[in-house]
Write a structure and sequence with these properties.
It comes from Verrucosispora sioxanthis. Pfam families: WG_beta_rep. The structure is a single chain. This protein is an alpha+beta fold. It has twelve helices and 27 strands. The strands form eight sheets. Strands 6-7-8-9 form a four-stranded antiparallel β-sheet, with no helix packed on it. The chain has a four-stranded antiparallel β-sheet with strand order 10-11-12-13, with no helix packed on it. It has a four-stranded antiparallel β-sheet with strand order 14-15-16-17, with no helix packed on it. Helix 2 runs antiparallel to helix 3, helix 3 packs antiparallel against helix 4 and helix 9 packs antiparallel against helix 10. The N terminus is likely disordered.
Length: 462
């Protein structure tokens, strides 16, 4: 089992309490844990406002009080993040929105300090829901978008889309709301009857409102929600066959004068003129930042780009051309959160100064998530699946080996690792690499279902 101190979402047991009971006098029933009570709450969804309501507000106030009591003894970031964000949920439904906002913001601070993607996403979603009720839609939309990572379980991603849909509904963005509802159903509709009922209620509300005032503005992209600048994209001039850059409307904003042009990253793009085999660097205005210098170049990420100048191999430079990581690598991957996967004699990883943080001893980095998505290098939480002589293990971005390379196949799950034994059967390891579920299943999906059964918050309260 997972260690309860790891706060993975799996329920803890109280063996000591059982040991203290005597044959003559049974131990009194402990009061129900407020987190479990809140998880069992069945909210009613108002068919017009699409907001949760409760039949007995006093019961929810009691739950909030007991969450406050638990907070008094919670010292670690994980526990405080969880308890504060759950208290924010209770306060929101009780319409104490100032208290809910304060708890939601503090919970997100603690959650981000843990570095755990799932925990941060839950805190973001709960805070976003409070902001939606307060009518602060821009920040709520942004938080829902930031939280929705492909590295999260489908169940949580579906819930995020559902709540983002309700936020769009409040704003009269009814087409966008429909798109989010549709995505939630794509992720979990066939497996979650309660989600299906809520989405039906939401779509009925959308249809009623659309009859009164139409479907509202055209849906926004994630970039628009996150207020990211829509940088120009490479575009070809049909006349001369050269490349330039066009804006969102298709107008050329950087003249077509290049034989090759890469996408802009960090406001910079590598281009190659028709009269040279060397790549130069331009900014968004089309001005040359670095003269033609490199035989090969890859887009910027984390402020650094990998380039090749001569036979010495790949090295990393900053936007001024200064060398940040010395040459000597046969292959490289983009920097992400200060670390990049590289190949020398084998595969490993370096930090932004060129220090080897994961020894270059592995035959490959092949990080695959439990839902089948592939990650180029490390996950958001800093985990990667490595290959050593055909056996898979897990390392983190500091170089620590979490799971020794001993498994024919291994997938990263949000709270565990799915792995096969020599017979090809699937089981699970916890995040410390210790056995969680014995390898007895023929398909990883069956193991995921077993993990869901162990999780105390498989259906997290948002």
């Amino acid at each position: 089992m997972l260690d309860p101190s790891a706060d993975s979402g799996l329920p803890a047991t109280d063996e000591q309490g059982a040991a203290d009971a005597t044959d003559d006098e049974p131990a009194p029933e402990p009061p129900a844990d407020p987190e479990q009570v809140l998880a069992r709450f069945r909210w009613r969804l108002d068919p017009v406002t699409l907001r949760e309501t409760v039949d007995d507000p006093e019961e929810l106030r009691e739950v909030r009080e007991r969450l406050t009591e638990k907070l008094a003894s919670a010292l670690d970031n994980r526990s405080r993040a969880r308890l504060l964000s759950l208290r924010a949920v209770a306060s929101r439904v009780l319409n104490d929105l100032d208290d809910a906002l304060a708890d939601g913001r503090m919970a997100l601070t603690y959650a981000e300090a843990t570095g755990e993607l799932r925990r941060a996403a839950l805190a973001q979603a709960r805070l976003a829901h409070v902001l939606r009720w307060r009518g602060e839609f821009a920040e709520a939309d942004r938080l829902f978008a930031e939280a929705n990572s492909i590295e999260l379980p489908d169940r949580l991603r579906a819930a995020l889309h559902e709540h983002a849909a309700r936020c769009c509904y409040d704003q009269g963005r009814l087409i966008e709301a429909c798109h989010h509802f549709e995505r939630a159903l794509d992720l979990r509709g066939e497996q979650d009857a309660e989600l299906l009922d809520r989405v039906r209620t939401g779509l009925d509300a959308v249809a009623s409102r659309a009859e009164e005032g139409g479907f509202g503005p055209y849906p926004r992209s994630w970039d628009e929600v996150l207020e990211r600048d829509r940088t120009p994209v490479p575009a070809r001039d049909g006349g001369q066959g050269l490349w330039g850059y066009a804006d969102a409307e298709g107008d050329m904003v950087v003249a077509a004068r290049y034989a090759e042009a890469q996408p802009f990253r960090d406001g910079l793009a590598w281009v190659r003129g028709p009269q040279t085999d060397r790549w130069s660097l331009i900014n968004l205005a089309g001005e040359t930042v670095l003269e033609p210098t490199y035989l090969a170049a890859r887009p910027f990420s984390d402020g650094l780009a990998w380039v090749v100048r001569d036979e010495s191999g790949w090295h990393a430079v900053d936007a001024t051309g200064a060398v940040a990581v010395p040459p000597g690598f046969a292959d490289v991957r983009p920097f992400h959160k200060g670390v990049a996967v590289v190949r020398r004699e084998g595969w490993g990883a370096v930090d932004r100064t060129g220090r080897i943080v994961v020894p270059t001893r592995y035959h490959g980095f092949h990080t695959t998530l439990a839902d089948g998505h592939h990650v180029d290098g490390f996950t958001e939480e800093g985990l990667a699946v490595v290959d050593l002589a055909g056996r898979k293990g897990v390392v983190d971005r500091s170089g620590q080996v979490i799971v020794a390379p001993a498994h024919p196949a291994l997938l990263i799950h949000p709270v565990a690792f799915l792995a096969t034994n020599s017979a090809g059967n699937w089981g699970a390891l916890d995040r410390r690499g210790e056995s969680l579920i014995d390898p007895m299943f023929h398909h990883p999906g069956a193991v995921v279902a077993e993990i869901d059964g162990l999780l105390a918050d498989a259906n997290p309260v948002l």
